[in-house]
Design goal:
By secondary structure, the protein is of the alpha/beta class. The chain has 26 helices and 13 strands.
């Protein structure tokens, strides 16, 4: 640890706070030794054992708590004594050891006017995708408020220091001091002393290899893995455990024995031959360096199981797992969220509790309540409101909850508010600029579009669309018979086919035609607005055929259809509204629970035993936390999209893929997934992850220019609102776009909507364009026949 100017100055009076027994804390002893070089050190620690004699420092006081005292009484007792000691001693520097004393240290420094040094033994900053317990969240929140007030923050290694510097608004970058110092090998007489005190450290043969585990004996430090590994090693390799505690494994306890060469009690499923593993007991102060007797040591670095109780590297590895975009998977097991997310669960597969920052959550809610009325006022007509308001509400749902958690970095919180403001501005700008074009379309193409909405063309479009979907059951592979015996969902095969199966010319042509007809299909559904059974059939029949064809259908394609049916029924069946409300309230948790179960079924995994409400909250949590779990590691990677390739991708969207040749075209969600997962597309373990619009904006334009993304999105949707708002019978198409921007855009990003908006509306635009030309030519001819008209 480097000596900091202004703190490590001679004749300083130090107050060291430790919520624990100094007897067994070598790190704090080293900190006291360092502080002693610049002045006097007064130590306050905490233990159930009374203080018999001074152990460290120039003076030593102890907060004695009764054994078995319930929480939070020991912490309150320690806080009280720390404040009393600080006011009495008036130290120059308060040294707070570990997160238990972070807030007491800040308060003690405040009442005494001292400077604060915070020594973080552990990394308790929750990693992306982690759901710490309520207790851990409490201490993490206290550290979050205390650490920025410290004049110096010290971590256990450089990696942790970098994470704390990134996560907290510290006054200066955190420094570090490692737990294990570089020490010379003890003298032979001292080694003999240790051998006599700890017979387990004595080699039984010259070629025997001792593997030493030193630390707390808890389940999440990887000791069971080390024990399992011992069963596969030669007999000359022996494991020694130096530490105290026990591990619970199912219904059996794994206890340490005394240091008398007794065997470690076997854990269920682990076979240890007698004598292969022994306990060396708790490490007292006299055993300064037991590792010197072991030629081989084992350190476990856990990527996702360890909390603050882990070793020095545990928290760093947890964060590295996200920062290096490695979402680890069990070999041979597909991720339960597959293509639609990258959320990993704990061993039980259940959801954790989301920890919100009350202040940010309140501010987000207030901002939304202000933004919605303002957006309502800047819109001109119901069509504009039906496109802008769902876009803002969807953005708040899929991003607002995430940025209100304690895991959200500051830049993401600021970006959230800037995004909404810029989105509204861009929408208004696009609507105003496109208004003349909308008037032109309304005055020239209303009759033709009305025919597509409820005339003869509507029926033709519906039939054509269903035929196009049905043909995919015939070519390239005949699957019509599966309509009567549908396959089980198989996401793995579906996704592998995206990279291994060639559609051929016919398949490509059908895909293009289907995309072109899709907006007209939804426009034509207006014809059956009063015939709910036919409308329901027309919405679900294509989805069922697609499921039979691919052995997979996305959950949210089904949700899209259900929401569309709900809106159409609400608008055109007023008598149903009460029933629709009751049905929605009753069925939403059930459908969400089924959707959560579907995430497992589609991968061939066993269905989670979560109940309906648990399944609902699991699904909801998995969706709203994507900006943190995927977006945050994406931004932390430092990668950025190639804007030229992005522009080329947009410009060439209407061109069939086989005609684009070797153009440098970006596939946005594929590149993002490669960065986050660290797996090349098409490789085993690759799937699509969704980062959220904020992270997508930063990935495309950088933190300085990210507002260009909501600006262009807003202008594009303002354009569509302007051209549709003056045309009657466009309701169904507007509802289609409304759901698209509410759900697809905010969840899947621009990659999920631009192909529909540009390619899908290409045929619509062509029809409108030639209709306008024909209408203007007709009017010109009429004006020529009637020059005085």
């Amino acid at each position: 640890m480097k000596q900091e100017p202004g703190i490590m100055t001679a004749s300083r009076k130090w107050l060291v706070l430790l919520f624990g027994d100094i007897t067994f804390d070598g790190r704090v002893r080293r900190m006291i030794d360092i502080a002693s070089e610049s002045g006097t050190v007064h130590l306050l620690d905490c233990s159930t054992a009374p203080l018999a004699d001074r152990v460290a420092g120039d003076s030593h006081a102890r907060c004695v708590v009764a054994p078995g005292m319930s929480q939070p009484h020991p912490h309150l007792a320690f806080l009280r004594q720390a404040l009393v000691t600080a006011r009495r001693l008036r130290p120059d520097v308060v040294l707070a050891e570990d997160f238990f004393t972070a807030m007491p240290g800040r308060l003690a420094a405040g009442v005494s006017g001292a400077r604060l040094v915070y020594d973080a033994h552990e990394l308790i900053i929750p990693g992306p995708g982690e759901h710490p317990s309520r207790r851990d969240r409490f201490w993490a929140r206290l550290e979050r408020h205390a650490a920025p007030a410290a004049d110096l923050v010290i971590a256990a290694n450089a990696e942790r220091a970098a994470i704390m510097t990134e996560s907290y608004p510290l006054r200066r970058p955190a420094t570090h001091m490692r737990n294990i110092p570089t020490v010379p090998r003890p003298a032979q007489d001292r080694l003999a002393e240790k051998r006599a005190a700890y017979p387990a450290l004595e080699r039984r043969a010259d070629d025997e290899v001792l593997v030493l585990y030193q630390g707390a004996v808890v389940l999440d430090r990887g000791l069971p893995r080390i024990i399992e590994a011992m069963a596969h090693l030669p007999d000359r390799i022996r494991l020694i455990v130096a530490g105290d505690g026990f591990m619970r494994c199912g219904d059996r306890d794994l206890w340490l024995c005394d240091p008398k060469h007794a065997a470690l009690r076997p854990q269920q499923g682990v076979r240890i031959r007698p004598g292969r593993a022994v306990g060396a007991g708790q490490r007292p102060a006299a055993l300064a360096h037991p590792a010197c007797r072991a030629p081989l040591g084992a350190v476990h670095r856990s990527g996702g199981q360890c909390r603050h109780g882990g070793g020095a590297a545990d928290g760093v590895e947890r964060h590295r797992a996200a920062q290096r975009r490695r979402y680890r998977r069990v070999p041979g097991q597909q991720h339960p969220r597959g293509r639609e997310g990258a959320r990993e669960r704990g061993p039980a597969g259940g959801a954790g509790m989301i920890t919100f920052d009350p202040f940010i959550l309140f501010f987000v809610a207030v901002f939304l309540m202000i933004a919605l009325p303002i957006s309502w006022l800047v819109c001109n007509g119901s069509t504009q409101r039906l496109l802008l308001l769902p876009m803002i509400i969807g953005f708040s749902l899929f991003n607002g909850f995430a940025i209100s958690t304690t895991l959200a970095p500051g830049y993401m919180i600021i970006s959230y508010f800037v995004f909404i403001i810029t989105l509204v501005f861009g929408f208004r700008l696009g609507a105003v600029l496109s208004y003349p074009l909308g008037v032109t379309i309304a005055s020239n193409a209303t009759a033709v579009l009305a025919d597509f909405a409820e005339g003869r063309m509507a029926k033709k479009v519906l039939i054509l669309y269903l035929i196009l979907i049905f043909v995919t059951l015939v070519v390239p592979t005949f699957r019509v018979h599966l309509l009567f015996a549908p396959p089980s969902p198989d996401l793995r095969s579906f996704f592998d086919a995206q990279f291994t199966t060639q559609r051929g010319a016919i398949g490509a042509l059908i895909s293009i035609l289907t995309t072109l007809v899709t907006p007209l299909y939804y426009l034509a559904l207006y014809r059956y607005r009063d015939r709910s059974r036919i409308l329901f059939f027309l919405l679900l029949a294509p989805l069922y055929m697609e499921y039979v064809r691919d052995a997979y259908i996305g959950r949210y394609e089904i949700l899209f259809a259900l929401i569309f049916f709900f809106i159409m029924s609400w608008v055109f069946k007023p008598r149903w509204r009460l029933g629709l409300i009751i049905s929605a309230l009753a069925l939403t948790p059930i459908l969400a629970s089924l959707a959560n179960a579907y995430t497992y079924v589609r991968l061939g995994n066993a269905v989670s035993s979560d109940g309906i409400l648990q399944g609902f909250f699991t699904l909801l949590e998995g969706e709203v936390m994507l900006p943190i779990e995927i977006g945050r590691p994406l931004i932390a990677s430092g990668e950025q999209a190639d804007l030229v390739s992005y522009v080329i991708w947009i410009a060439t969207l209407p061109i069939p893929g086989f005609l684009k040749g070797g153009l440098p075209i970006i596939r946005l969600n594929f590149e993002i997934s490669e960065i986050v997962l660290g797996v090349p597309r098409g490789s085993p373990g690759f799937y699509i992850v969704l980062p959220g619009l904020i992270s997508e904006s930063i990935f495309l334009y950088g933190k300085a220019l990210f507002a260009l993304h909501p600006l262009t999105i807003g202008m594009l949707m303002g354009f569509f609102a302007a051209i549709l708002q003056n045309i009657p019978r466009m309701n169904a198409l507007v509802y289609f776009l409304s759901i698209l921007v509410f759900f697809n855009l905010n969840r899947g990003g621009v990659s999920s909507v631009l192909p529909i908006l540009i390619n899908g509306f290409l045929l619509f635009a062509i029809i409108v364009f030639f209709t306008i030309l024909r209408e203007q030519a007709r009017r010109k001819r009429q004006s020529g026949h009637h020059p005085n008209g």
